[in-house]
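Hi all, a correction to my earlier message: I attached the wrong file for Riboflavin biosynthesis protein. Here's the right sequence:
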Amino acid sequence: MLIARTRQEITLDLSAGTCVTIGNFDGVHKGHQTLIARVLAKARARGLASVVATFCPHPLQVLVGPHTPPFITVREQKLDLIEAMGVDMTMLLEFTKAMAAMEPEQFVRTYLVDWLNCKELVVGYDWSFGKGRKGNFEVIQALGQQYGFHCERMPPVMIHDAVVSSTRIRDLIKAGEVWEARCLLGRYYAVRGTVIHGHNRGGRLLGFPTANLKLENEVRPHNGVYAVWVNVNGNWSNRLDEPGGTALAGVANIGVNPTFGNTDVSVEVHLMDFDADLYGKEVHIHFVQFIRPEQKFPNLDALVARITDDVALARRILAEPEANCWAPA
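and the right structure:
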């Protein structure tokens, strides 16, 4: 998949035109996947290049600033997931305050017409664009007639009698309801981190060595203990078994380790039946099921006993067919 940030970086032959969808695509969830699948189908039917246009940085980072909420997918993950669907090109449009102030016609003429030679546009049910978000579907339809492209609006994707949305998924993850989020994402919710040195307590004091992770700006699941699959030096694959990656069963803990009186939130994972040095390696934690909330124990013996129970329960959870790391959501 070609990734282009400017018109000059577009090396695909777009003379026949493109089929495009535009959005933030945070999560690349089942609603987004439906949009992209429609783009791929229409592009194949008409002999067009398939294009996903998204924004970098995310508009909220420009318009809201440091108070931007965390994202479901960091940029690399988003691009990997889009590429896995078979898209020809992702256009990373630089979002600026000047872009936010563009009139709808200027946005369409610049990006869809001049840059992408758009012949088909597929948008979500609630998509809008341009200054004051006044570029609604009726506006884009009229502009399509003026500039020679057809526009289709997709209905919302419903799961469990509610619309699939990034906000809904984010709320589920923050509440620790990662199994429920999986249904909306079409995969396990995952975070990426580099293994760093922690407090050196897991193996030495407790008998359960852990890998401590430094995360990016992803949504962090609610503090507690989770059954997880861990991908070591792999990619953001849904299957977890890509070349170079290894799917390992694990137990992750998110929180402040109150038994030890810590105050900083940490993310650490114990890998079952695995004994190798992971310092400096990149790992992906795929959250399968919440086990229990974080709690303070009266002594180390009580903590070790509970961790032993957590590991045993995680083994049982991950052994279930529904939790198989290769099973589709």
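Sorry for the mix-up. The domain at 190-323 is CATH 2.40.30.30 (Elongation Factor Tu (Ef-tu); domain 3).
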